[in-house]
Amino acid sequence: MFPADVLTISLDCGNDISLFLKHLGSEEADHPDKQCRDREIHVYREIMTDESLPVAKYYGSRWNGRSQCHEVVLEYIDGWNLKYHDLEHWFTAARRLAHLHAHFAAQADALWSCQYLLRFDARYYSDWAARALASVAEQSAVLATALEDVVSQYHRVAALLAEQPGTLVHNDLAPKNAVVDTNNTAARICFVDWEMAGVGCGLADLVHLKYGLDPISDQKMCAAYCEELAGTNLIPSSPQELASLIAACELHNTLHRLWRSNVWQLPIERVAQWVGEARAFMLRI
After folding, report:
1. N or C: which end of the chain has fewer CB within 10 A?
2. Residue 105 and residue 237 in one domain
3. ∠ CA(197), CA(71), CA(128), 5° rounding?
4. What is the pLDDT of residue 14?
5. Cβ atoms of 113 and 154 closer than 8 Å
6. pTM of the model
7. Strand partners, 6
8. Which residue among 20, 46, 75 closes a domain?
């Protein structure tokens, strides 16, 4: 998480506006997906130009020579993230995410040409599987052996994810990165923190967003998202193929958590749980 400030600006007309000043410094410099430190600025300035999109308004950015970091100025959203809201707002977030993915799917060719966006291709996914295995091996030889069964077959998972129609992918869409503004009659959803954005399979964002929900709410999230994309090529028309693709996205997210498990110094029981989940997801693909 990058440091940030909330600024209150008094205008000549007498009104005040609140702005969100984010400092894009060297935090998590070891993260493979955060090597382009000004990616979020490019996303807001060059991609998020449609005011109907579920994102904060972009006001500007600069390089701060004193702090040696990029700074981006955004609209301040006076709200709490999804974790603190009822499920109805989660389902709204799923629908807004579908709208965002549909919007950018029409611009996929342009997105693939953006050098600052991550490319979620087969190599990208395979690299994450290798990182997860290396992290688990540092913690338990037994668990590493169990995970090797997944990694040895992961090429087909990587190929499945990479062959999906491309759209803009947030790539870190945990509930904390979905802010809900309830100051108006209709709640407004804003997806924030785009420093890991890329182009590829959009369903990965939904899977990240719904992680940890109970099975019934999980199904409702998927239904809300998929209903908005019915008739498009962004989701498979076959229920079986859709279930397989969701499992592939779940597996990728699990491998990402396993990579961080060593840094987070989690109990080995939690690591074992995630390895077991990875093996179960592989069986569903």
Report:
1. N
2. yes
3. 25
4. 79
5. no
6. 0.94
7. 20
8. 75
The residue among 75, 110, 136 that closes a domain is 75
Structural domain boundaries enclosing 262: 81-283
Q: What is the CATH number for 215?
A: 3.90.1200.10
Nearest to 117 by CA among 197, 201, 32: 197
For the record, the structure tokens of 78 come out as 């006076």
Angle between helices 215-228 and 87-105 (to 10 degrees): 30
Same domain for 56 and 89, yes or no, is no
Q: For residues 50 and 109, state if they share a domain.
A: no
Q: How many domains does the chain have?
A: 2
Mean pLDDT by runs of 10 across the 285 residues of the chain is 82 86 85 94 96 96 91 93 94 98 97 97 98 97 98 97 98 96 87 97 98 96 97 94 98 97 94 98 97
Same domain, 115 and 161: yes
- Considering the domain architecture, whether residues 55 and 123 belong to the same structural domain is answered as no
